[in-house]
Amino acid sequence: VWRQAENYGVPRIVFVNKMDKIGANFDFSVKSLHERLNANAIAVQMPIGAEDQFEGVIDLFDMVADVYDEDKLGAKWETIPVPDEYKEEAESRREEMIEEIAEVDDDIMEKFLGGEEISNEELKAALRRATLDLKAFPVFAGSAFKNKGVQMMLDGVV
Q1: Measured distance CA(33)–CA(130) in Å, rounded
Q2: What are the φ/ψ torsions at residue 44 (nearest 5 degrees)?
Q3: Domains of the chain as residue ranges with CATH
Q4: How far is residue 81's CA from residue 126's CA, in Å, rounded to a whole number?
Q5: Nearby residues of 23 by Cβ (< 8 Å), 6 or more positions away
Q6: Cut 0.90: pTM above it
Q7: Where is each Tr-type G domain found (predicted)?
Q8: 131 by DSSP, 3-state: which?
């Protein structure tokens, strides 16, 4: 499917599904996209936990966490500040995301190198342009069966 989309110039986003299953590894999946498909995959989220401990996702743009109510099968979630135990990693991943977006967008690169503040709107617009130009592929995380992370991925489509 990926190669067909490549042949026909179809923009793509990636949803790393089944984050609630045994063996789930978001970082390995992103790395595989780079290595096996030669895709410039840019993680725009990070999971909170994995396997049976998967609780939700952290939005690396807005630096907030969406934590799901396990009893509601993803129909109900709460947006909270990034939990303290994930703050440092989330900040590091956000910086990495910004660098990766800067690599595919000259305007962002100029601001990044100049040490200027880059707004979320500018980052999202740059990533959208890069996605449509097939220069980058945003990566989301979740569990479709439990309806976790699906909402944010769908928001990423538009």
Answers
A1: 17
A2: -105, 0
A3: 2-157 (3.40.50.300)
A4: 25
A5: 51
A6: yes
A7: 1-158
A8: helix
